[in-house]
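Section 5: illustrative case.
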């Protein structure tokens, strides 16, 4: 008899059984787009539909995904709705740039994100995680203390980003810079009813009122950061850190990027480079708190590797179970739940059974890790938290295009290796020292607000592991 406990099924909206009306669609998109999708999105390989008069193709079939993101990627640009939301904030940063500007920027920043270079960040990731763990030492009593883990993980990943890419030299006017980043993303980075109605960009978006002020403050911080570093480079180049910021600023001298593009990229990397990882870390701690046998297996692995004094750069390889627990959280709660494109010219794709999908020019293509990762055709027990599926011995069964937390093709996430390494190091440091447990208030509900995040946060009890538990 199989004595293993039933796998944990963490909270998520159930597929809709009937299509919503027009008003309900608008309400759901504004409240939580994850609640929009019906059964067909979780069971069919593709769906051709109309969304506010816009022809839309929802794609789950891994072959068709590969066609759009890789094989015929030149025929697909970023979709209008994504650009309408993100471009006013990030302008020509890497995430939102297209064509030649994108090509130049990707080439310019790529050296920092090669696996070999990213490995060099492991020491800083460890130091920042250890510093952050000190905050929890105040929880050093038998019963522990409740912390807001979603906010904490954002602070931690921001500290790692600021140290690794900017050598801690982001000029901040307040201690709450990470809060400012969040305010910016949440004010500006969401769908407004005017976006859905395709109103021109000069029509005010009520949901973003106040956002421009935050954005102006932010841009001024970025410019001050650039000026301070340029002054340092001019005064004493030899002692200036050879980091991402220096690499970007050097591009101005060589003509690789304009001053505006450098500014846009600094903002982009601050925005794209920490909240996503923070979300997945918080969801991992939540899932693990609900699965004692998984937590114990991780603790055993982490304690063993740490007792061997292995360098942090090796932890990702030495901790396959911890990595699997994180990847399974990325599957169930992909921080980027939707990857949107639009077809430039007419296109077609035929599956192995000879069925053909016609994709007309202008069609919006929705590739949604959210539905793909929970799809009945591609996953066994799709809604359950089962890290074992990501262990090296099982990993071969997961197709490259059925697991897309970082996207794929030329626009694949440039920070994927960085994020995985960071996540394993942070989890190892935190879980070696503390246990993260549920409280009565821990009732997260996933909402899509740019990233997939727990509505109302994630309060958890943090208890030092070495302390004897009270009966
Ligand atoms: C778990 C963490 C992360 C997740 C789930 C994630 C997810 C993604 C996804 C899905 C894309 C592709 C978007 C598309 O094709 O439309 C992307 C692109 C991008 N990501 Fe990440 N990301 C993560 C961490 C990071 C980190 C740590 C950085 C930087 C340090 C970063 C920087 C970027 C940038 C700049 C792009 C745009 C790349 C391009 O278009 O050339 N991301 N990310």
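Designed sequence:
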């Amino acid at each position: 008899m199989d004595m293993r406990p039933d796998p944990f099924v963490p909270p998520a909206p159930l597929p809709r059984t009937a299509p919503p009306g027009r008003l309900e669609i608008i309400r759901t998109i504004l409240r939580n787009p994850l609640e929009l999708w019906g059964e067909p999105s979780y069971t069919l390989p593709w769906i051709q539909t109309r969304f506010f008069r816009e022809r839309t193709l929802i794609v789950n079939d891994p072959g068709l995904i590969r066609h759009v993101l890789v094989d015929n990627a030149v025929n697909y640009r970023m979709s209008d709705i994504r650009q309408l939301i993100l471009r006013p904030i990030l302008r020509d940063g890497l995430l939102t740039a297209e064509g030649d500007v994108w090509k130049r920027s990707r080439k310019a920043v790529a050296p920092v994100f090669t696996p070999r270079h990213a490995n060099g960040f492991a020491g800083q990731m460890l130091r920042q995680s250890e510093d952050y763990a000190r905050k929890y030492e105040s929880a050093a009593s038998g019963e522990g203390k409740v912390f807001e883990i979603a906010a904490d993980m954002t602070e931690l990943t921001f500290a790692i980003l600021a140290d690794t890419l900017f050598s801690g030299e982001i000029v901040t006017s307040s201690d709450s810079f990470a809060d400012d980043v969040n305010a910016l993303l949440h004010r500006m980075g969401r769908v407004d009813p005017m976006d859905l109605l395709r109103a021109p960009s000069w029509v005010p978006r009520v949901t973003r009122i106040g956002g421009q002020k935050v954005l102006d403050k932010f841009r001024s911080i970025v410019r001050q950061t650039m000026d301070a570093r340029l002054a340092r480079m001019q005064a004493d180049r030899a002692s200036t850190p050879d980091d991402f910021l220096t690499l970007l600023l050097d591009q101005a001298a060589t003509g690789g990027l304009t001053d505006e593009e450098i500014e846009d990229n600094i903002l982009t990397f601050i925005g794209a480079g920490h909240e996503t990882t923070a979300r997945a870390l918080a969801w991992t701690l939540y899932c693990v708190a609900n699965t004692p046998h998984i937590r114990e297996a991780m603790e055993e692995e982490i304690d063993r590797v740490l007792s061997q004094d292995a360098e942090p750069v090796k932890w990702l390889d030495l901790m396959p179970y911890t990595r699997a627990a994180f990847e399974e959280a990325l599957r169930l709660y992909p921080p980027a739940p939707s990857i949107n494109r639009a077809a430039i010219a007419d296109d077609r794709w035929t599956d192995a059974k000879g069925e053909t999908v016609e994709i007309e020019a202008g069609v919006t293509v929705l590739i949604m890790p959210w539905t793909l990762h929970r799809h009945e055709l591609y996953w066994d027990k799709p809604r359950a938290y089962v890290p074992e599926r990501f262990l090296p011995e099982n990993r071969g069964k997961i197709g490259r295009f059925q697991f897309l937390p970082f996207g794929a093709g030329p626009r694949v996430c440039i920070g994927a290796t960085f994020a995985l390494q960071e996540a394993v190091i942070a989890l190892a440091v935190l879980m070696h020292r503390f246990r993260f447990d549920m409280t009565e208030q821990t009732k997260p509900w996933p909402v899509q607000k740019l990233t997939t995040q727990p509505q109302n946060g994630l309060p958890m009890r943090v208890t030092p592991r070495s302390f004897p538990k009270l009966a």
